[in-house]
Amino acid sequence: MHSSVVSNSLCRFRLVSAATLVPVAAFALALTLLGTPPTALAQQAAVKMVATEAALSPLAKGLKQDMEYLASDELKGRSAIDPAILQARDYLVKRMSEIGLQMDSVDGTPLQPVTIATPSRIDDPTKNTCQLTVGETVVELEVGDGFTPLILGVPKQKVTGPLAFVGYGVTSLDPPYDDYAGLDVKGAIVMMIRKEPGPNDANSPFDGKKNTSNAFFASKVKNAIAHGAAAVILVNDQASIDELIKVQERRIGQEQGRIAGLEKALAASDVENPNGKQRQLKRSQQMLKSLQGGIQASRRGLLAIDAAGSPDGESRVIPVISVARDIVSDLLKAAGQQSVAELEGQINRTYKPSSVMLANSEATVSVDLTNPSFTSENVIGRLPGKGDLADEIVVVGAHYDHVGMGGTGSLAPGTIAVHNGADDNASGTVTMLGTATNLTDMLQEVASHRTVLFIGFTGEERGLLGSKHYVKNPVLPIEKTSSMLNLDMVGRLKDNELYVYGVGTSPSWKQLIQRANAEFGFKLIEESGGYGPSDHDSFTRSSVPVLFYFTGLHNDYHRPSDDFDKIDFGDLARITDMVSKAAFEMVTMPQRPSFAQTPKGVQIRKQRMVYLGVQLSSDAPPVTVVSVLPGSPAAKAGLEKGDQIQKIGKAVITTNNDLQSWVRARSPQENFEITVLREGQQQRISGKLEKRPD
């Protein structure tokens, strides 16, 4: 799933009236609110068995086999701009051929090329140089050792000029402040600190602790250009360095704890899944090494090549580079000035510039960045239609790319490690293959059905590039495409909750998904909107009705920990069978589904990470507690049966869904204050949320 839209999304869970359910289902819903884990649900309510390898169905075994390869380290995280994606492509071609799909939709092949622009990069480090001279002090820097060219600036240029230190590089009318006042930097190479004066000062004249536009990298570079500077040297500020190191140290501690736990588990005589734990251990050790190496560079404040963002045209005029703080401090001292830390502190205290031209100085900066492209392909397998419906098309799609070894799209910044993407989106890809297998069999004796295109999309993680390319260049007419079913992150079912987006894009969908789910009993959470950060969005924008199946965001999303061992293949097989029934009806329904426009403000939901520990009456309002789980956060806070919940903090609670949405948006260890009505008296009850039991 493409990440740019979902970073701050909230989520909810649904409570259905227990009185309308059979006893097992009612018990399952109570456990959802109480926070009881899925494994306990299975044991206590007998809803499902945890499938051992021997107990897996043939479908589940096939899904597992496909995912073992697609989410393996060999594929290096399936980045759409890495040659490893071609191995995943070839695997899809092989599997679609084995299923019996026709593989000739694109000029006799199954491959639709998609050219993807790649970020500027350093092909030849020797062409990227930085030499800094102050008096007798000469410093020659190499890429990665105290110096990094930044893609924010011009990709190719060599300049020479005197050095100037220009504080934060800010010129502001409100508040009045100018680091360039009284300084002529035309033709000079200017050194400036990241951010703006007083970054941690609540009383800063700029905007307190909030950044104004003066702090933006691009704004600083444009201001330097306006003052005639020949190049910009960015120096990381201490507050940003400290914050980054704090995050990295926390992650190092977490990884060390994870390694210790895995080593302890592997040492036990009754260890389960030793091969999987060995893989996890190896991956954690690699990540720890990467983090420990990265923290050393962080202490020097050196920025990554893309840390200042991409060029916007106006900034792409002069070279922009990052130089380590210690090196800049040495140069300033050689010129008889204070260190970076001392000058930074002085500006932050006084809000007065401390800019200076460095006497007897000269710098030569040369940048040589390439801006190439990479071609990977959409993989298309076709199940031909029959009879009167044959000229209409249904697309069943899933993106097969992920975020590679980290970097762009990763939510583990600074980590160089395989982001295997088992759930995102090997799960959707293997479910598409399983659906293709099922539909091929289910449609054999059907006299009339639509053509089905099964498409593995590339470039989804880089902005839905594969699906956008397809709808602009369809292999069969987009105006004859009756519907699209998208599968993205369907491998981590929790509490039997399955999200279905796009239900509002056709009046036909609501009843269709209910019929398909009848024998499977998923707790469907229906979302009307057909837009959002996955490939169905491209089809919605082309007026094609869509359905998007999804099991929710989780803490492993876009991190190396989204691994194969966390997938329940029994659940994945259930989802595949249910999706196959929905797809069968989409393919065979006599009337083409009509398209309906839906709002564009779609929230992508996150799985519940915490629990409160209450069961609610289904007869809200008022929102009434009917039981409290012993030992839960609610019990520890003092909630009681019969309490009517009126508010949590400032949030007014009038429906069960209000409470559920509030809980779903919270994190472990967050404090809460609940206002309840108890025996006619209003009371406030305080407590702390806890991590939802696994």
TrEMBL record:
This is Aminopeptidase YwaD. GO terms for molecular function: aminopeptidase activity; metalloexopeptidase activity. InterPro entries: M28_fam (IPR045175), PA_dom_sf (IPR046450), PA_domain (IPR003137), PDZ (IPR001478), PDZ_sf (IPR036034), Peptidase_M28 (IPR007484). It comes from Stieleria bergensis. SMART domains: PDZ (SM00228). The lineage of its organism: Bacteria, Pseudomonadati, Planctomycetota, Planctomycetia, Pirellulales. Residues 601-680 form the PDZ domain. GO terms for biological process: proteolysis. Its EC number is 3.4.11.6. Keywords: Aminopeptidase, Hydrolase, Protease.
